[in-house]
Predict the structure.
Amino acid sequence: MNDHSLEIPGNLTLTAGAGSLPKILVESAFSRAEIYLHGAHVSHFQKHGEPPLLFMSAASEFAAGKPIRGGVPIIFPWFGPRDGHPAHGFARTTEWELIATAILPSQAVQLVLRLPSSNGYGVEFMVTVGDQLSMELRVTNTSEQPFTFENCLHTYFHIRSISDISITGLSNVHYHDNVADLIATEGHEPIRFEGEMDRVYFNTTATTEIVDPGFGRKIRIAKSGSQSTVVWNPWVAKSIRMPDFGDEEYVGMVCVESGNVADDELTLSPGDHAVLAVILSSESL
Ligand code: BG6
């Protein structure tokens, strides 16, 4: 719950965020971050002296039952649309509980959130705010049956201009192109953007990098426990169709998402657990 006893004076404070939703403010020696209990949603991470790492839409809703547009939505237990159910699962629209906080020897600030009311599984999300942003989504099968699910940390990155950036690390990887509805293999050139892109790269554990000359910054996305990488930018027409996203905001964002989706879905035996871990770091070009 909104347990103020877990606050760390000067480093971790529970407050009211947009839409009066409970929000955790984190101040580390290296960076600032904000995490909503709604969706266990990291909405902000910024290293001192750098632009924010994460994109947040100015048109985002902050309301019960609605996903937040930007930051790091947690996608679980399914990815994408599902008949009669909310797209991308319910984890991103559920209020999570803050269950633990700590200052690590590195001076990074760490917190753990738990998804309440599990149905045969337990889900915890650990966020570590330091010189880099580390996130771990741990799913445990507490039932007597196998449990199959998809997961994804649907990370929106803040970039200077979509036309100038490139993404490396996915050469030779097979992907499903959701725009053209075809399967293809990535070439050797870095990925660049000239229109809507919505691709699921399969069977890859590779570290990817976003090279952003506009901000003079390179963002590194290192991951483990993840076989899928999703790359998404809605471009013009889809931006206009999305009510909680500005018509021009596609220029300043790109999603590079780490998870296990579609054919990469996971099945846990009773008692087993899976950890999806992502470490986001940045450096000057
Ligand atoms: C991406 C999907 O991961 O999420 C896209 O590949 C989708 O197809 C996008 O449009 C945003 O989804 P939502 O439900 O947050 O609007």
Notes: The CA atoms of residues 245 and 255 lie 14 Å apart. The pocket of 6-O-phosphono-beta-D-glucopyranose is lined by residues 67, 87-88, 154, 178, 198, 230, 232, 257 (CB under 6 Å).
